[in-house]
Amino acid sequence: MVAVFAFGSMMLFSGSLYAQKSRASVSGAEVTGTFKMSFIGKKYKGLSNELEILALGGGKLKFAFDLIYPYTLKNGEVSVNMGGLSGEIDIKGDTAVYQSDEYGACKITIKFVRPGEVKVTQDGTDGNCGFGHNVTSQGTYRKVSSKKPKFESTEN
């Protein structure tokens, strides 16, 4: 049941009409690729956060975030604070969760809402997740490439 309340020109919806239902599973082809979340505004055109994901099989994903927080300096130039995070996580149904206490409590949830769209939520501050000032992974990311990402090796 959905109830709609109107107050002047504002409408409020009650119920789960717009709730995103969880899916039992997602395919490797759906999750593998590069996803971007673009920043809004003329000044920040072309700037985005990036999430690369590779399905490894067996309910595991390899991921890498390349994140920024754009801002304008007093002289009008655009600058950014940066952050990054990578690793392997388990996926259950349509949701994968990263958790760490390395810098403080950090939980990042990656939900595959529909093919080509990922919603990321972050519980924990920029510092708790090891990011620069005001940098966050949170937002809606759109798939820009289905190619398998190539991750930098951390092994010697």
Task: Walk me through what this model shows.
The chain is mainly beta. It has a single domain, classed as Lipocalin (Beta Barrel). Helices cover 3% and strands 53% of the residues. The protein has an eight-stranded antiparallel barrel. The protein has a two-stranded antiparallel sheet with strand order 1-2. It starts with a strand and ends in an 11-residue tail after the last strand. The relative contact order is 0.20. The N terminus is likely disordered.
Rounded Rg: 18 Å
Strand content: over 45%
| Global geometry | globular
Largest sheet: 8 strands, antiparallel, barrel
The averaged pLDDT comes out at 87
- Along the chain, the helix and strand elements come as EEHEEEEEEEE
Strand order of the largest sheet: 3-4-5-6-7-8-9-10
Total DSSP helices: 1
CATH architecture: Beta Barrel
The unreliable regions are 1-18
The number of domains is 1
The count of strands amounts to: 10
The top level CATH class name:
Mainly Beta
Distance between the termini: 58 Å
Structural class: mainly beta
Short descriptors:
eight-stranded antiparallel barrel, two-stranded antiparallel ribbon, 156 residues, globular, 53% strand, 3% helix, Lipocalin, mainly beta, 1 helix, disordered N terminus
Short description:
By secondary structure, the protein is mainly β.
Task: Provide the fold topology.
Elements: E1 3-7, E2 10-14, H1 28-31, E3 33-38, E4 48-57, E5 60-72, E6 78-92, E7 95-100, E8 106-114, E9 117-123, E10 139-145
Antiparallel strand pairs: 1-2, 3-4, 3-10, 4-5, 5-6, 6-7, 7-8, 8-9, 9-10
